Amino acid sequence: MVRRTSFVDIDRIRDRLVSLIRIPSITGEEDAAVAQIANWLQQQDVEIDYWNDGIAALQRDHRYPGHEVERAWAPVVVGVLRGEQPGPSVLLTGHVDVVPPGDYSHWQDEPFSGVTRGDRIYGCGASDMKSGLIAAMAAFEAFAESGRNFPGRIVFAAVPAEEDSGLGTLAAIRGGWDADVAIIPEPTVQDGTPELLIAHAGAMSLRIQVPGKSAHASKRLQGESALDHFITLYEAMRADEKAVNEAESHPLMRVHPLPYATNVGTIRGGLWSSSVMDSLEAQVRVGVPLGETIEQAEARFRRAIDEAIRDDPWLSRNPPRISRLASGFGSAATPEDHPLVQALAESAEEEYRRTPVISAAPYGCDMSGWVRLARVPTVIYGPGEIDLAHAPNESVSLETTYKVARTLVRTTERLLECDVDSLRAMRSPAATD
């Protein structure tokens, strides 16, 4: 009997990965990349669902996470394989969008070149996460090309807007797609081998507007510097960040130096160097711990600010205005003893001849959407390296991408043989965000 892993073609993986990298699918501009994946799926004998979910409809959904990039719709493509017998449903999914490449002078090659040097393929999105998406597609196609003699159903979904709050995954869920378990091949490689992530932190974005009072710079004490008052708030943010991280007890999160980071990403304020700054606006990314919802995280942050300004003569009378920019990703976790974790760990050990490290991430991704909104137990396992993501000269190992695809085939085979009730008995709790 021919093993399904033999249908994973490393040459096709390379060609498709290079082709996908060459499509500059910056978040908000994913249409061409999704269309390319739809074209590849059409070459197989599979069911295809390909649609655009309009942004107005997404905004009306009570689960809408916000978005920061202008778009008219979210394009999604889903491929489906149904086996000959009833059984579980396994979802393989990833995002097509990438962050802007930044200053081209920092890149050795054109950012969307897909240049190959030895085992490495270079380009914006190579690691995060076009390699993972192509690995998932290769695993899906291995089942499509090897017959339908399996139980259950395999779903492959390519979504946009992961880099912008996970809007694409919400669109897929709104499209009616569900599964008993899901695997997202986001970058997890450390020291040359993929780790198996079963949890990740969450994050949200807030806007803080700090009032001041203008005065001539030579009479600075007659004014109220919005920058000086922001420093008071900044110190409160750092104290809150410290308290949240010191309170974390999850062993997989405690290995990180800073599991839940609060970061001031932008600051804008002032009109003139000779005037005291009369207003300041900052955008802040707030880390969300495991077990805390977006709503709870925002309330915690607001309490920290309120306590900091209570005894401040200016800020207590002129409090800052805080508004949510985007809900971003809530935190997410799947129990370590879930059959999904066991199936992937055993498959990775077969492929790599060693047991993968079980870990958690200090950043968020689409796992949150599947766990919190669809209640689908989800793990992350992919060929990219997070240290290379969102950075110049991003690259990925072709051999690792190939091995991850084979691991996903083995894992899917194991999961399809699982008892459906055993998978569903450990479904994630409903979202409360």
UniProtKB/TrEMBL annotation:
Pathway the protein acts in: Amino-acid biosynthesis; L-lysine biosynthesis via DAP pathway; LL-2,6-diaminopimelate from (S)-tetrahydrodipicolinate (succinylase route): step 3/3
An MF annotation (GO) of this entry: metal ion binding
Keyword tags: Cobalt, Hydrolase, Metal-binding, Zinc
Essential cofactor(s): Co(2+); Zn(2+)
Catalytic activity: N-succinyl-(2S,6S)-2,6-diaminopimelate + H2O = (2S,6S)-2,6-diaminopimelate + succinate
NCBIfam families: DapE-ArgE
Family per similarity comment: Belongs to the peptidase M20A family.
The protein, known as: Probable succinyl-diaminopimelate desuccinylase
Organism annotation: Alkalispirillum mobile
Lineage: Bacteria, Pseudomonadati, Pseudomonadota, Gammaproteobacteria, Chromatiales
